Amino acid sequence: MPSQTLALRLAGPLQAWGTQSQFNRRATDDRPSKAGIVGLLAAAAGRRRGEDVTDLLALTLGVRVDQPGVPLADYHTVSTLDSGPLPSANVNAKGWQVPTSPKKLTHVTRRDYLQDAVFVACVGGDEELLAALAQAVTHPRFPLALGRRGCPPTQPLLIPHETGVLWPLSVGEALRAIPWQAGWAVRADRRLGASVTVSATVDDNGDSDDLDVVADVPVSFDQRRRGYTSRRVRHFWVTLATGLEPSTRTEHDPFTLLGW
Questions:
Q1: Is residue 176 domain-resident?
Q2: What pLDDT score does 209 carry?
Q3: Element holding 34 (H helix, E strand)
Q4: What is the pairing mode between strands 227-241 and 212-220?
Q5: In-domain check, residue 15
Q6: For residue 253, is it within any domain?
Q7: Which domain CATH number covers 126?
Q8: Residue 78: what pLDDT?
Q9: Partner of 6 for a Cys bridge, out of 38, 123, 223, 230, CB 3.0 to 4.6 A?
Q10: What's the pLDDT at 128?
Q11: Within a 10 A sphere around the Cβ of 231, how many other Cβ atoms?
């Protein structure tokens, strides 16, 4: 049986794919994490936080950065609706959070995002599971988000192949075959030529020294059993056609109007 791949276009005003931070400072990586993609697929399929996602974790993930986006830092403060003291991490005998001591009325937090980024995420594995996930992302049971709940996608996620919803290619091959997905504003840049080179990563269980280790594989999405394990990924470059003709503009010289 040939390899099958589910391809997703991840685009929106804001995205956030954090793997190394929590609590007051929530950073974002430069591309989607495996935890983020698995969480998105689980939400689309209607799985709740405590449900098993072992089959989704076994899928091979590849990500292509078609439009890297611009970093955004959201610095803000948190307070209660009644202007009372913020709750602490401690609880009383009944399991209720107790107020901070000494009382703290305002809390400073920071959230990092990527603005106007576009990624292609390819997922490979069991064909029956992938077909079910393709149906799920087009008719999701729960609202979908790009890494963080406040980051909805702006366009349909599924990138179908001309022969069906799945691409009859391996994940690496699909990353090289799927057309460039950058937004219209980037495509309007007349400095672009006939091709563009973008970065990509794909899961790789080999033992080569040039592989990178990423700790973004969730043990569970259950709040009481949160934890992560690592995976090995391979980085590479992909050259894609832009669909644009090379610019024929010449250097502007106003003196040519005078015949000089």
A1: yes
A2: 77
A3: helix 34-44
A4: antiparallel
A5: yes
A6: no
A7: 3.30.70.2660
A8: 81
A9: 123
A10: 96
A11: 19
The whole-angstrom separation of Cα 63 and Cα 111 is: 23
Nearest in space to 197 (alpha carbons), one of 231, 232, 242: 242
pTM of the shown model:
0.83
Residue 37 lies in a domain: yes
Residues with Cβ within 8 Å of residue 108, at least 6 apart in sequence: 24, 75, 76, 77, 78
Burial of 8 from C-beta contacts in 10 A (0-12 / 13-18 / 19+):
buried
CA nearest 18: which of 223, 220, 216?
216
User: How many structural domains comprise the chain?
Assistant: 1
**CA 157 and chain centroid, separation:** 11
- For the chain, the C-alpha Rg in angstroms (whole number) is 22
With contact defined as beta carbons under 8 Å apart, do 230 and 215 qualify?
yes
Closest CA to 67 of 27, 36, 32: 32
Mapped onto helix, strand or coil, the DSSP state of residue 75 is strand
Give the containing element (helix H, strand E) for 131.
helix 127-138
Q: Which of 9-13, 118-122, 190-194 has the lowest mean pLDDT?
A: 190-194
Beta-carbon count within 10 A of 225 CB? 11
| Residue-number span of the structural domain to which 192 is assigned | 5-71+114-244
Per-position b or e across 98-112, b if 16+ CB within 10 A of its CB: eeeeeeeeeeeeebb
β 25-26/227-241 pair status:
unpaired
Q: What is the mean pLDDT of residues 29-36?
A: 94
Two structure tokens written together for 228: 């992560």
